[in-house]
């Protein structure tokens, strides 16, 4: 997708607003996922054939992470380095989800669909945030 397509998706051409909207969407989706894992780790664990203890721990991590991303989204000008950290954490989550699926998880069919789907969604957030951040800061290195 081009920057123009991401701007259309965010419904703004203003890079600051675009970034904040993509961060807010990430926080909302991650928060809902985290709370679902916290509240329904048993039933979800059985549905996905993933340990409920793992889902409970992930739920806690995701809920705290979502709160941090929401805080960034609420800033008038989100600081660049924490936004880069969100992008990198999202990419790491996506990669680790596929690694977990290939190496140590043996989920049900629902889990085998859910795990890649959520990983691709998180990778999409990272891409959207990256495009918005680049539109805001330009192509220079973050260490400049």
Q: Would you mind describing this structure in some detail?
A:
With 144 residues, the protein is an all-alpha fold. It has six helices and no strands. The chain has helices at 3-10, 15-39, 41-48, 52-74, 80-103, 109-137. The longest helix is centred in the C-terminal third of the chain and has 29 residues, at 109-137. The radius of gyration is 16 Å and the shape is elongated. The mean pLDDT is 90.
List the defining traits of the structure above:
144 residues, mainly alpha, transmembrane
- Secondary-structure element order, N to C: HHHHHH
Q: How many strand elements?
A: 0
Which runs of at least 5 residues are low in confidence (pLDDT < 50)? none
Evaluate the radius of gyration.
Answer: 16 Å
Beta percentage is under 5%
Number of helices: 6
Q: Judging from the principal axes of the Cα atoms, what is the shape?
A: elongated
Structural class: mainly alpha
Largest sheet: none
* Fraction of helical residues: over 70%
Terminal CA distance: 27 Å
What's the average pLDDT?
A: 90
Protein name: Integral membrane protein
Transmembrane segments: 21-40, 52-73, 80-105, 111-133
Organism: Streptomyces phaeochromogenes
Keywords: Membrane, Transmembrane, Transmembrane helix
Topology:
Elements: H1 3-10, H2 15-39, H3 41-48, H4 52-74, H5 80-103, H6 109-137
Helix pairs in contact: 2-4, 2-6, 3-4, 5-6
